[in-house]
Amino acid sequence: MTPRGYGSAAAYCPRCAAALAAAPPTRCAGCGYELFLNPRPTGGLVVLDGARFLALRRAAEPGAGRWELPGGFCDGREHPADAAVREGREELGVEVVLGEFVGMYLGDYEWQGELLPVLDCFFLATLDGGEITLDPAESTGLRWFALADPPPLAFPTMDAAVAEVRRRRRG
User: Fold this and answer.
1) Are residues 25 and 46 in the same domain?
2) 87 and 141 together in one domain
3) Are residue 79 and residue 117 in the same domain, yes or no?
4) Residues 18 and 84 in one domain
5) Is DNA-binding one of the keywords (predicted)?
6) Number of folded domains that form the chain
7) Which residues, at least 6 apart from 120, have a Cβ–Cβ distance to it below 8 Å?
8) Is 40 or 1 the better-scoring residue by pLDDT?
9) How far apart are alpha carbons 53 and 70 in whole angstroms?
C-alpha cells in the first residue's frame, strides 16, 4: 500500500499546491520545498510481573481482537519515554514505573487509508499499585503471558520487543 496522495499525480506540495512529480522524498518543482515521509514515533511498554508480561486485546482497527502491548503515538515534541508513561496511565488506569529501554523498531501502521511508517520505542515497566481499569475504547481484555510463550502480537515490532526482553532474561 502506498501512502494515499503520494503515489499518484494527485499528490500536491503542502506549501504551494503544485503537483509533485514523485512520492517522498521529493522536491517540489514549483517552490523547491523538500518533502519527506518520516516515521511517527511511539512509546510502548513491556509491563513485567516476574517472567510474565501484560498484553491487551485491541478494541479497534488495525488488528482489532489481537493481543498488543500498551502504548501509542507520541504527541508533538513528546519524548517516547513520556508517551509510554502517559499511554500506560490512559490504557491501564494506573501509574507505571518505567525501567530500562528495550529498543526501537521500524514498522508500519495503517490509518485512514494510509500506511504510515512508525518508529516504535519500547521500555520495560512495572505497575505502581492499584487495580487495572481498561479504557474500553482501547482494549476489551487483558492477560498475563509467559515471556517464554507469547502469543502472536498485533504488530511485528511488539513481537520483536518481547523477544528482546526474553533474550536479555536468558543471558
Assistant:
1) no
2) yes
3) yes
4) no
5) no
6) 2
7) 42, 44, 71, 104, 105, 106, 107, 155, 157, 158, 161
8) 40
9) 11
C-alpha cell at 24: 517522498
State pLDDT tens for residues 93-145. Answer: 999 999 999 999 999 999 888 889 999 999 999 999 889 999 999 999 999 99
Q: What is the pTM of this model?
A: 0.89
Q: What does the alpha-carbon distance between residue 7 and residue 24 come to, in Å, rounded to a whole number?
A: 9
**Which DSSP category does 164 fall into?**
H
* High-pLDDT (> 70) share of the chain, %: 94
Lowest-pLDDT range of 10-19, 72-81, 113-122: 10-19
**92 and 104 share one domain:** yes
Whole domain around residue 85: which residue ranges?
A: 40-170
CA 87 vs CA 43, 46, 57, 119, 125: distances in Å:
8, 12, 15, 16, 12
CA distances 56 to 47, 109, 114, Å, are 11, 18, 24
Residue 52 to residue 108: CA distance in whole angstroms: 26
The answer to whether residues 32 and 94 belong to one domain is no
Report the range of poorest mean pLDDT among 5-9, 24-28, 87-91, 129-133.
5-9
